[in-house]
Design goal:
The chain is mostly helical. It has one domain: Cobalamin adenosyltransferase-like (Hypothetical Protein Ta1238, Chain: A), CATH 1.20.1200. The chain is built from 5 helices and 2 strands, in the order ββααααα. Strands 1-2 form a two-stranded antiparallel ribbon. A hairpin with a 5-residue loop joins strand 1 and strand 2. The longest helix has 27 residues. About 4% of the residues have low confidence.
Amino acid sequence: MKKPTKSSSVTTKKGDTGQTSLRDQERIGKSSPLLEAIGSLDEASAFIGLARARSDLSLVKEILLEVQNHIYIICAELSCPDDSSKVRIAEEHLRRVEQRAEDLERGMDLAPKFVIYGHSEASAALDVARAVVRRAERRVVGLRRAESPSNPVILAYINRLSDLIYLLARYQELKKRDPGASSSKRLKGEP
């Protein structure tokens, strides 16, 4: 019987000095504006995943999984901006998020008022995810001032993403409060 090969450990001890490696193996301080931005996006994706797990609406789950994949693209792009072989966040991703938001907003009659969060666990998780996305947006703005990432779509995407997640939270509340209340028209992708 062949002895199983040992896989690499999650614990490398290389970060004990306050630095970490980017995808291109460049070492960088853990408190750098770049890692603050990437870390905030990672946290946003984790909360989006929590919201996806809490929701029982297929449209919400589908959209959240899609944006999590987009966040991974953004993080990869930020961590290795000179790698021309990788996928980049593009206008098509931005348009997709904008279209999703337009479809949701068109199907709801949102009153212009402040929202008290916590109507349900799923909508509250979405609201936390939105707040973390807003923080990630502030970190990317700080990164642009410090290091000027070359892709302007990143910031626009994150800005639209927080709007989309806000709308998903209201959609979640609306569908759980009164399943027929949003509109007689069905949203794209809605069963």
